[in-house]
Amino acid sequence: MHSKEEIVQYDSKSYRINGKQVFLNSGAIHYFRMPREEWREVLVKAKLAGMNCVDTYFAWNIHEPEEGKWNFEGDNDCGDFLDLCAELGLWVIARPGPYICAEWDFGGFPWWLNNKKDIKFRTYNKPYLDYVDRYFDKMIPIISDRQVTNGGAVILVQVENEYGYLADDEIAADYMQHLREGLIQRGIEVPLITCVGGVEGTIEGANFWSNADQHYDNLRTKQPDTPKIVTEFWTGWFEHWGAMSATQKTAALYEKRTLEVLRAGYSGISHYMFFGGTNFGNYGGRTVGASDIFMVTSYDYDAPLNEYGRVTEKYNVAKKLAYFVKAIEGLLLNSVEGVCEDIESRLSKGFTARYREQEDQRIWFVESEKDERETTYLTLASGNTIPVTVKPGAITPVLERVEIVPNVRLTSNTYLLSNEEVEGIHTLIIATDNGERSWVELESEQPIQLDGLVSQQMDFSTDGKRLTLDNYHFNETQVISLIIAKKQFQLIFINGEMAKNTWRVDDHKGIRWALGYPDMNILEDGSIKVALSRSGNGVLHLGKWDTLEAFSDGSVGVSPYVHLDAPEVNVLTTQVAELSLRAGGTSKEAPIGFSELGQPYGHILYTCDFEQGENEKRTVVIPAVQDTIRVFVNGRNQHLIREVGAVCVLLDLVPNQTNHLQFLVQNMGRLNFSPYLGEMKGIAGTIYLDGSTVDIRDQWQYENTSIHLGKVCKVEPGKVIHRTFTLKDQDRAILVGAMIDKLRINGQQIVTNGIQDGVSFQTADISSHIREGVNEIEMCYMKSPIDRLELIAYHSRNELNDWHMQDVSTLERIEDHNREVCGVPSWHTLQFARSTLPEYVHARLKLRLTGMSKGIVKLNGIHLGRYWQIGPQEDYKIPMAWLQDMNKLELFDEEGRSPLRVRLIYDLQSSERWISI
User: Fold this and answer.
1) pLDDT above 70: residue 547
2) pLDDT, tens digit, for every residue of 224-246?
3) Dihedral over alpha carbons 22, 28, 29, 33 (to 10 degrees)
């Protein structure tokens, strides 16, 4: 029995839990990004992939959506999530914030916090910290009660999140110390950690995808006596509307980057994300970097488990590496970087190698610089020269004389997936990619005896104490049984495809292995039971398994497409209702934003009437906007404005009469990552007529040369560039776009906040620095091309006053016009029955919104998220847990597009047949 102080300990090498060294293989999984009905399956799949830990944020805004109204029930029952982790034998790294980033609206802060007087976020600010303390009073006891010291699963708790991106440790000290003490005072007794930036009394981790060595050296310099873990190892990336798919981090590169982490000497990896899930509701955030980086509704993240909980190629990589780490855990955690001065003489040209060692045990990392798969030869410390096959640009691990049990050592040129006793037999599973060979050598102080079939290519030393195997890895599993010192061993050789279909299960029945099953379905009966879909190859079961029962021959499946108007889904009605765009709601001289109106999310309609003279064209300037705007004039849709910060737009008007101007604004998500959280959402402040806008990326002068910042420019960074602009009868001006530091207007310095890497998207009011006629602007060149840099000018006398603002959800609906394209914002209501599927068809359902424009989607009153048909997201998750016998689907479309091409689609794996194990 360990005391509370001894349950979680650490030194410079690793964490120790209950006295045992552990390599933390953690999967980032957020309870709030899926229905609770999916928790068990996702967590079990993480455990089956070798994860021994789960990393989760806690989102303040879902637990206190309205001030003082707390919600810890249903999908928000984070305590139940932690209990489930404990039940499944998964440790937890808890990250309660209060700021979490996570591409989540407002970085996890509740929207109403933005209305508090004198509040400043993420700083030592009393109004802010008073609310943080209230949040901690509710959240931290839930975590504290579930620490391993209290019989739960929580082994580490994080203080804040990535504060080092905002300020250095000295500046952050007062704020971070307040949070650290707040955790301790509320009962946190496991070690406290930070990521990217630290505070006294915590252990710092690093967040990255590449440059593992550099991050390791930084941590070692800063905290030499603590374990080094990757608190966020970015398995993929988030996506935003109008961008390409974020699939650049391939499975092959994921494998290489993981091996780089092991090579550097880390003792833990948290795979961010292991399962990303979905930004249901309006919780997708917005990040800095350009004018409109708004998160899509999917948070698939190109993660090992996709948005629907399906296994991907990255999952196979994560599992292979986690099994490998488990098999050589002791060596990895106790090894040091080796020094080999003659490495070039040990390898073929075009390859490099580094190694880690513990006494005479080594793990080598052989890296290829070749452009095709090739076999090199590596001379080991023992003098043996062995073949090593490496893919182009990849790394292959090589084990040298690793002690698998006392007095028995293994040398191998590929992955070792199992190194443990299963039902009294010490089992080694050795895997290499399809079409490759492995070279394996066992050494023992006692003679090695064969117990069964002889491999076709094996060689015994004359004393029988060394066995060398040169094996081709077939599709069918190969097993070699041995006896060493009266102990049974088995060597199991599998190829890459079989490695994907190989599973290690560790539960109350002990350690079990199943080989030959490509996917799994989780049965919810309170224990880890898995149903694995059987492959066409032979299968192998190690350990205590229940009876196997197979289903049909595969003749029963599910069509991947289910049209909303197809008979099998029994559509009852399809209704269209356009919105009456009449003024109503709140009236003000100038527009106000979402928070000021007390509206958290959704759409607001801004309306104003003004008299127009003889002209048919006129501009309008919106000096402050942070969301998309759809512009209607006299009920006609004229523009969709995507630019934020400030805009000037040309209107088509009816001359000599009153014109009806309307802005339909959707809250597209608050900043989740920025030095300046809490931006206004919607439109706020005075709006002006008769402005002008000029793209000022061109006509910059540099050494008598004119350059265009929208193009690649050969200018040395830091060099001063300048240009002029002319103002006539305009006393106000805004500069908006990608600005560069050391910006000056007419010789006067302009303060630009939040500059990162020399360039930052900014909106700067330069009105106090301008003059009538010619003005000069100068700045230091940093980089190009840049997407936007505009000068918007107007006169302060041209105010547009008397505005009406209304929540779109309260607007009157005019029913059923049945037009192909309504042209005005419309609600579409569709009803369908839930399909009856065989129990063994593990279906996943998504909605494809072909033909729609932009808006929101609801299922049975549950907000599924925003949609915008500009990519990269095409399909939207429909959780099976939220379906009823009869279902109502509601679409709010800003353009009133017809839903005739909208479809429900089963994902590609929904026709799998299952057997239970």
Assistant:
1) no
2) 999 999 999 999 999 999 999 99
3) 170
Confirm if 8 and 193 have CB atoms less than 8 A apart.
Answer: no
Pick 693-797's CATH classification: 1.10.443.10, 2.40.37.20, 2.60.120.260, 2.20.25.110.
Answer: 2.60.120.260
Quote the tokens at residue 274. Answer: 């292991």
What gap in Å lies between CA 96 and CA 90, rounded to an integer? 18
Per-residue pLDDT, averaged over 43-63, amounts to 97
The mean pLDDT of 875-881, rounded to a whole number, is 96
Six-digit token pair at 498?
């079989």
d(C-alpha 162, C-alpha 176), whole Å:
11
Greatest mean pLDDT range, 458-462, 675-679, 728-732: 728-732
The CATH superfamily of 4-326 is Glycosidases (3.20.20.80)
Task: Give the pLDDT of residue 150.
Answer: 97
Secondary structure element (H or E) that encloses residue 182, with its range: helix 169-185
Tokens of 590: 């100038």
Helix axes 126-144, 169-185, angle to 10 degrees: 50
Asked if domains 4-326 and 329-528 share a fold, the reply is: no
| CATH of the structural domain 581-691+801-807, one choice from 1.10.540.10, 2.60.120.260, 3.40.50.300, 3.90.550.10 | 2.60.120.260
CA angle 264, 268, 273 (to 5 degrees): 110
- Residue 720: phi and psi, rounded to 5, are -80, 130
State yes or no: pLDDT of 535 exceeds 90.
Answer: no
162 is catalytic: yes
Confidence at residue 559, expressed as pLDDT on a 0 to 100 scale: 47
- The hierarchical CATH code for the domain 561-578+812-916 is 2.60.120.260
Amino acid found at 396: T
* Cis status of the peptide bond prior to 98, with omega within 30 of 0: yes
Residue pair 128/121 in contact by the 8 Å Cβ criterion: yes
The class level of CATH for 329-528 reads mainly beta
Q: What is the pLDDT of residue 859?
A: 97
| Annotation says 64 is catalytic | no
- pLDDT of 817 reads 54
Whether 526 shows a pLDDT value over 60: the answer reads no
229-260: burial string, b at 16+ Cβ within 10 Å, e else: bbbbbbbbbbbbbeeeebeebebebbbbbbbb
For the chain, the structural domain boundaries read 4-326, 329-528, 561-578+812-916, 581-691+801-807, 693-797
Read off the pLDDT band of 294 (50, 70, 90): very high
Catalytic residue among 41, 103, 162, 329: 162
Catalytic site residue from 38, 160, 204, 232: 232
